[in-house]
Amino acid sequence: MAKKNTPSVSPSHFLGFVVFSLCFFVPKSVLGVKKELRFRKNGQFKILQVADMHYADGKTTSCLDVFPNQMPTCSDLNTTAFVERMIQAEKPDFIVFTGDNIFGFDATDAAKSLTAAFQPAIASNIPWAAILGNHDQESTLSREGVMKHIVGLKNTLSQVNPAEVHIIDGFGNYNLEIGGVKGSRFENKSALNLYFLDSGDYSTVPAIPGYGWIKPSQQLWFQRTSAKLRRAYMREPEAQKGPAPGLVFFHIPLPEFASFDSSSFTGVRQEGISSASVNSGFFTTMVEAGDVKAVFIGHDHLNDFCGKLTGIQLCYAGGFGYHAYGKAGWSRRARVVLASLEKTEQGGWGVVKSVKTWKRLDDEHLTAVDGQVLWSKSPAGVRRKKQTGSPE
């Protein structure tokens, strides 16, 4: 990916003046549609994040930034094997691919490359979803065409865009609801909300160089979706005093990811923050909504940190794919996110108690590193750092 070190500019953040058609009714729940997303009987829901596979043409695709002795046997198949290993090791309930799923310039046939890239998820029978990065549309399919192909694949819960939205920027803006444990009092409530947004590819405004950003139309959709979900969660039955926690997934970092120094995050920062050169205000939009607890992105392959800003954890996944730039000797990696419910006084399962995360390295032992609590319902809950090991 081409890095651009352009100065940050902060345009006015006036969503109310955006002119477009957007309906007001409650977002359609995915509970009971296709594969049901809900917490397990043990009160947990686990997400595997795969960022920047950069898949191209399979076994003929060369690897980047590995040791010379690895080159003869390294290809896209190493990326596929890593996905398969992660699925076997973690047994996630849901898999999220956060963009640059294929590297368009080196993919001869976009449809074939996309299908091959997602094949481990398809074969696992685990529900999965994907969003687009800045390289997915650079092959034989347009950006819309890529998203439509993804939506047509087996076991995916991806959507091109919300059915109720008539005009919205990008392709791949949607939300998914995670129901409570089946048979519990929260069976028919969404205990955890997932938001997916298309952060674009490159600026289409001549005066603004660099990468794309999340537009006002997308932010207004997010605001209204979040508001409807909050109201549903806080009304009977089982009315709650606050919103269910929300997790947000997109590809390109926000300028706010540059807010941390080495003492204020868990993980590493080994390259600059390649955000858009303008600040579209989406971080402020999320803070105002009040339900977002963490954001998960990709794009900058050598960054894998999580840092907390104004109550929201901003998390990189670290580079996953072998046809993506990386660093020889610095293992490719994946992020795991685990949401856990609290036990009720009656011994059943209630609302989300905590959201934890860790990463696994593509080494001999799939070493788990940087386990931490991203969010805890308990007033006493604080972020805890662990050097290694899964917090599960």
Essential attributes:
single chain; 392 residues; alpha/beta; seven-stranded mixed β-sheet; six-stranded mixed β-sheet; 13 strands; 21% strand; globular; disordered N terminus
Structure explained in plain terms:
By secondary structure, the chain is of the alpha/beta class. Strands 4-5-6-8-10-9-7 form a seven-stranded mixed beta sheet, covered by helices on one side. Helix 5 packs parallel to helix 6. It is globular, with a radius of gyration of 20 Å. 16% of the residues lie in helices and 21% in strands. Its cofactor is Zn(2+). This is Probable inactive purple acid phosphatase 29 isoform X1. GO terms for molecular function: hydrolase activity, acting on ester bonds; metal ion binding. Belongs to the metallophosphoesterase superfamily. Purple acid phosphatase family. It is found in: Secreted.
Blueprint (SSEs and pairs):
Blueprint: E1 44-50, H1 76-90, E2 94-98, H2 110-117, H3 119-124, E3 128-131, H4 143-151, E4 174-179, E5 190-196, H5 216-233, E6 246-249, E7 265-266, H6 282-289, E8 292-297, E9 306-309, E10 312-316, E11 333-343, E12 349-361, E13 368-376
Parallel strand pairs: 1-2, 2-3, 5-6, 6-8, 8-10
Antiparallel strand pairs: 1-11, 4-5, 7-9, 9-10, 11-12, 12-13
Q: Beta-strand percentage?
A: 15-25%
The string of secondary-structure elements, in order, is EHEHHEHEEHEEHEEEEEE
What Rg, in angstroms, do the CA atoms define? 20 Å
User: What is the makeup of the main sheet?
Assistant: 7 strands, mixed
* Helix-and-strand structural type: alpha/beta
* SS element count, helices: 6
How far apart the termini lie comes to 34 Å
Keywords: Glycoprotein, Iron, Metal-binding, Secreted, Signal, Zinc
Organism: Populus euphratica (Euphrates poplar)
Main location: secreted
Subunit structure: Homodimer.
